[in-house]
Design brief:
Elements lengths: L4 H4 L2 E7 L2 E11 L4 E26 L2 E29 L5 E18 L15 E19 L2 E12 L3 H5 L13 E13 L5 E12 L2 E5 L5 E5 L2 E16 L2 E16 L19 E9 L8 E9 L2 E2 L7 E2 L2 E11 L4 E8 L7 E7 L8 E6 L4 E8 L2
Antiparallel strand pairs: 1-3, 2-3, 3-4, 4-5, 5-6, 6-7, 7-8, 8-9, 9-12, 10-11, 12-13, 13-14, 14-15, 15-18, 16-17, 18-19, 19-22, 20-21
């Protein structure tokens, strides 16, 4: 039971799922141009259920102490089924060029049955028994080119789609009709370089540009009412880099950094609200990681690693009025194989004992609620010690 739900939407729930699937794949290699053909089909059949009950919470001062169960909010059975044939081919027109292409067709369906015979409520609306079906064709195309012995370039285009989850479709909440949610369609373009030097320095840099049509987002109004809906378009673009290098015989360095920009290109939740052009909420502008590992022979294959983690600032609300400043943390890790069977490990996270948030959000004052800043606190300095034995 998440603690935030005690004040927003107090309830308990139980989900049950079973799944049966099959993956068929056939591969054929051809000598000309090192060509490889793969065809196959993925099949899935997954019946499940959801049971959600409202609870009345009991408080002593500001502390939640207990609760009692009230009426049922949701009780339904839902079965997800899919069949997805695909084909993939890769070939080498030249010794340095490798090209691949693929096509996938997805047919997916939800069959939903409501088990409650009570009227739904404004806060927990329920659809009638129904079936929801999706069909989609997804192509992909990519290539790699060996510029020289130590440097390769790559480029790719991938189209994909994602159907709404059963929870998004059938746990409507205050939304009028989530059964009509469209699947998310994604077009992703990426180019990059990947290489190494004679000194065993490995590096990679890539640039991506991704457009999502009908992205599934949650709109939250000033009174904390939430509604799941399709956005017209969102844009996700950025640069990602990585590097690993030996600094000394016993010391290795690993770096990674990403600079991103995620925006609502076209999203008007209602006639009075337009977020088009705003930055996507809770999407950090940049992220980075630096790790230095010391692994002398005395540690018998083990190592001590110091890690620096950077999370950049992000918007806390969809209107882009408040920001979380981001944070930087230090972690340290140690592992030591005493022998092939016995291993000791330890780690200290948030070494400087900083105050930070794993998630931060802001809600402006509404007709029935005041202004609210919400922070999910991160762990303080925390130490872990473990021992493992294999036989």
């Amino acid at each position: 039971l998440p603690n935030w739900s005690l004040s927003y939407d107090p309830n308990t729930y139980k989900t049950e799922n079973q799944s049966a699937g099959m993956m068929l794949k056939y591969r054929q290699d051809f000598v000309p141009m090192r060509t490889r053909l793969i065809i196959g089909t993925d099949v899935d059949y997954s019946p499940g259920s959801m049971d959600q009950t409202k609870i009345d919470v009991i408080k002593e001062g500001n502390v939640f102490t207990s609760y009692s169960k009230a009426e049922k909010l949701y009780d339904y059975d839902v079965t997800f089924s899919s069949i997805s044939p695909y084909a993939h081919i890769e070939t080498s027109p030249t010794d340095k060029l490798r090209v691949n292409a693929g096509l996938r067709f997805d047919h997916m369906r939800y069959d939903y049955k409501d088990n409650l015979n009570t009227p739904d409520t404004a806060d927990h609306q329920r659809p009638e028994d129904t079936g929801v079906e999706y069909q989609h064709l997804s192509p992909k195309l990519g290539m790699t080119y060996a510029i020289n012995q130590h440097l390769n370039s790559f480029a790719s285009y991938r189209h994909a789609f994602r159907v709404p989850s059963q929870s998004q479709l059938f746990r409507q909440g205050k939304s009028a009709n989530t059964v009509k949610l469209d699947p998310v369609k994604v077009d992703n373009y990426e180019i990059g370089l990947r290489g190494n030097t004679d000194g065993n320095v490995n590096y990679e840099i890539s640039v991506y540009y991704m457009v999502k049509e009908d992205d599934i987002l949650t709109y939250t109004d000033a009174d904390n009412n939430k509604e799941t809906m399709n956005a017209g378009k969102t844009l996700h673009q950025g640069i990602e880099t990585g590097l690993t290098a030996p600094l000394h015989t016993d010391i290795d360095l690993a770096l990674s950094y990403a600079y991103t920009e995620f925006t609502y290109e076209d999203w008007q939740p209602n006639a009075e609200t337009d977020y088009s052009g705003n930055q996507i909420v809770a999407a950090p502008r940049d992220m980075g990681n630096v790790a230095v590992a010391y692994h002398p022979s005395q540690l018998n294959g083990g190592k001590v690693e110091l890690e620096f983690v950077h999370l950049g600032q992000y918007w806390m609300d969809q209107k882009n009025t408040q920001t979380y400043r981001g944070h930087q943390l230090l972690n340290i890790r140690f592992n030591y194989p005493v022998n092939p069977e016995f291993k000791l490990s330890a780690r200290i996270l948030n070494l400087e004992n900083k105050t930070y948030a794993t998630n931060a959000s802001y809600k402006e004052a509404g007709q029935y609620s005041g202004e609210k800043f919400e922070y999910a606190p991160g762990m303080p300095r925390t130490a872990y010690v473990s021992a493992s034995y294999s036989f």
